[in-house]
């Protein structure tokens, strides 16, 4: 069977990632309409996109009912919380094609301990780690790792939107992080998720997302997120403050080797356990001096990586998502003209800058008016909305932590950065936060090398 576009697709979610998915799928040949549940005012403003505002993205029955009512051919699930709530399971049981893993397979993201267990069994390289239910055993392991001279990372096991991780410079700091996690846990009862202690790895991070059908994987171009709030990777961890693609230190064509090292063995192990993974398997990698190491898996498209990656694709995405949902990536690959197992990119680069509300990542302030959106779009940037609403007067206001991603495109990284920066400069809201160094580091490195 060849690659066929889904005519009606339902996207679950309402953030910048879902906006980028809706923008991409609605612009592709063969697609009639894209629905987004619950979506947002801004997502619904895209041509051929409609929002299903009242539908709860965490309610499996409500999503199944909406998919049936709207006679969609494919459902694409954006957020991890919908996966963990079993939305993909409910759709599959109802016989509806869905791109997104079962809750059991999505544990690759929702439990860091499970991810370590599967990676160990699959022979996939991760940081040395221990998983603990007991505070004193955790502290003893941390002391042992610290004695080796390296740093430590303390992680809560469950979903924490990128915020349950403390990267520690000293054993004291690690002990405090451990105490804090166990204090939370003992306050809440006895059967709590464990705490994961890892050796701290050094290097640059990269995100490699592959579309998977349970067995086969097709890679999207690699991207790099910037997880800390402030320039120079300072400040607290966030969901992600900006991304760029391609990566000078991980060229697009290396994706094939990484699929062999990470995605394919993980898929085989999950299938062996009876929980095949159908959806976007996101490998968060640390590119160490010793080669790439898996830091974490996500069970979905990255945010804001998706906003940077999708505008780079030279091919339609919808047919691949549909083929993955039907377990037919192998046939799709055989019938396509792409070389290897990765979607070919357009020439050029993208830079996505996230604009976050005052107070993020703590308590984001809602209701601030946002200006300059049209000016930014008129400059040729893509403006994806993550947390905005339009009030009765038509004013767009902040309504979430991450508010917007502004994506600049250019012939190379420097041009894309300039386009993104110039457009982001036009957008104003009280207390709006953003980084000014997204995609800057490789440019500094190459400027230094040229001297
Ligand atoms: P995670 O949610 O596990 O990806 O962790 C969030 C962020 O913490 C990662 O993107 C890294 O920046 C950092 N991090 C996590 N694990 C490690 C590690 N073992 N070594 C160094 N940094 C880490
Ligand atoms: N950008 C990181 C994530 O999506 O988790």
Can you offer a commentary on this structure?
- Helix content is 33%, strand content 25%.
- The protein folds into four domains: 92 residues, Rossmann fold, CATH 3.40.50.20; 70 residues, Dna Ligase, domain 1; 134 residues, D-amino Acid Aminotransferase, Chain A, domain 1, CATH 3.30.470; 101 residues, Phosphoribosylglycinamide synthetase, C-terminal domain (Glycinamide Ribonucleotide Synthetase, Chain A, domain 4, Alpha-Beta Complex).
- It is α+β, with helices and mostly antiparallel strands and 451 residues long.
- The chain has 16 helices and 22 strands.
- The protein is globular.
- The strands form six sheets. Strands 3-2-1-4-5 form a five-stranded parallel β-sheet, sandwiched between helices. The protein has a five-stranded antiparallel β-sheet with strand order 12-15-18-22-19. A four-stranded antiparallel β-sheet has the order 6-9-7-8, sandwiched between helices.
- Helix 3 packs across helix 5 and helix 8 runs antiparallel to helix 9.
- Bound molecules: adenosine monophosphate and glycine (GLY).
Q: What is the compact description of this entry?
A:
The chain has 451 residues and is α+β, with helices and mostly antiparallel strands. The chain has helices at residues 16-26, 41-44, 60-69, 80-84, 87-93, 107-110, 112-122, 135-147, 171-188, 255-272, 305-309, 318-325, 329-335, 373-378, 413-426, 441-450; strands at residues 8-13, 33-38, 49-51, 74-77, 98-99, 129-132, 152-156, 165-168, 195-199, 204-213, 217-219, 224-225, 228-230, 234-237, 242-245, 278-288, 291-298, 349-356, 382-385, 388-390, 396-398, 402-410.
